[in-house]
Prior knowledge:
The chain has helices spanning 2-25, 30-39, 51-54, 69-72, 95-106, 117-123, and strands at residues 27-28, 44-47, 65-66, 87-90, 111-114. The protein has six helices and five strands. It is α/β, with parallel strands linked by helices. The protein is globular. The protein has a five-stranded parallel sheet.
Amino acid sequence: xxxxxxxxxxxxxxxxxxxxxxxxxxxxxxxxxxxxxxxxxxxxxxxxxxxxxxxxxxxxxxxxxxxxxxxxxxxxxxxxxxxxxxxxxxxxxxxxxxxxxxxxxxxxxxxxxxxxxxxxxxxxxxx
Length: 127
């Protein structure tokens, strides 16, 4: 009985690790974003929130390009030059940016979704 439980636990840990590795592949932490902002002058931040959200409580990151997620597919040609740059995609919480990251990837643009989005970005500002 103990060996079965041990085996099940080991399989669970293995699959959890694999899922986390896959998830991390297309994401960047807020601290990673802040480091990239400081070190990579060619970094492009793509904010996929609506224009109304940019003027709200969370504000926006200076210099970020804004294309709302719902317009991204239709405006993908505007981003052709991004194929040769590092792109960080941000939204409010990380959900839309993950979807946008997939769209960009499908069009050959390497990008990373900012885990936690602007909520996490603002929360860690004073650290």
